[in-house]
Amino acid sequence: MQQAPVQLANAKARKIQLRAEVDAAIQAVRTVLSLPQNQVLNLIGNLDEGREIPGREALELALPSRPDLRAFNARRDQAEFAARLANGEWKPSLAFRGNIQYQEDAFSNVLSSDNQNYTFGLALQIPLMASPGSSARKSVAQAQKRQAEYGLNASTDQARLELETAWTTLQAAAEVVSTQQMALELARESVQIAQVSYENGVITSAELNDAQVRMLETEWTLLQAKFAKIVAAARAKVAAGVE
Questions:
Q1: Which residue among 1, 31, 60, 181 is least packed, with the fewest CB closer than 10 Å?
Q2: Which whole-number Å values give the CA distances from 65 to 73, 164, 239, in the listed order?
Q3: Where are the chain's structural domains?
Q4: Are 41 and 26 in contact (CB under 8 A)?
Q5: Cα 160 to chain centroid, rounded
Q6: Nearest-angstrom CA–CA distance, 65 and 73
Q7: CA angle 220, 221, 226 (to 5 degrees)
Q8: Are 122 and 94 in contact (CB under 8 A)?
């Protein structure tokens, strides 16, 4: 009986801590959504949601869609296009030009072949003074392209590591949830057995209370495991760039 007040005090302290954590989490949600701190939020859903997540292969296929990887791809393509433009500035250009001229005072004789003049020619343009500038711009563009490729490779490796870590965490969380569900079933059976034993005078009320407390603790552990699984699934989606 002396342990009951101590356990009750510990439970009240834990309740206060959890309530503070809930308030802090809600404040963080308001901050992320750029909402006033006095904005009322109604949270819906339960811990049994979020089970449907893409498979490992689907997550790996979606990996290139990450925003950071798309940004590096865009930088590489931009630098490659700039290098092509700079490469074409110093190359000579050859053009074929022609025109037809009509000269006649009367409109009815405009299409007469005697009043038509044809001029055709080739135009060759060699940009001699553009070579140094275009060469420098080409070198800069190529350097930017290599920089984007190095960044893309490094970011891809980091993304694969994040995805592998998140997937491993998700699998572990799923196993913990499955294990805790089995433990909760066993705890409920123990409570039922303890209830029958108490009614028959085999055990005391303290032993029955202990069985009930263990069942509640197992339920709490299961809820924490479900929450950890949802968080792990969200992190796996973020690591793979899945919306």
A1: 1
A2: 10, 16, 10
A3: 92-126
A4: yes
A5: 12
A6: 10
A7: 100
A8: yes
Residue type, 100: I
- Give dist(CA 44, CA 185) in Å, integer: 27
Distance, CA of 75 to CA of 162 (rounded, Å): 23
**Eight-state DSSP code of residue 42:** -
Per-residue tokens: 12? 């009240």
Copy the structure tokens of residue 62.
């979606």
CA 176/CA 165 separation, integer angstroms = 17
Map residue 117 onto helix, strand or coil.
strand
What is the token pair recorded at 222? Answer: 């299961």
Residue 114: count of CB within 10 angstroms of its CB: 7
CA distance 164 to 171: 11
List, for residues 87-104, the tens digit of each pLDDT value.
777 777 777 777 766 665
Give the integer Cα–Cα distance in Å for 50 and 24. 23
**pTM (two decimals):** 0.67
Which residues are CB-neighbours of 100 under 8 A, at least 6 positions away?
116, 117, 118, 119
Tell which residue, 176, 133, 130, 148, has the closest CA to residue 68. 148
> Cα 186 to the chain's mean position, in Å?
39
Q: Tell me how far apart the alpha carbons of residues 103 and 50 are, in angstroms, rounded to a whole number.
A: 82
Q: What is the pLDDT of residues 38-91, one digit of tens each?
A: 888 887 777 776 556 778 888 888 888 888 899 999 999 999 898 888 877 777
CA-closest candidate to residue 54, choices 172, 153, 166: 166
Q: Are 107 and 162 in contact (CB under 8 A)?
A: no
* Token pair belonging to 22: 């809930």
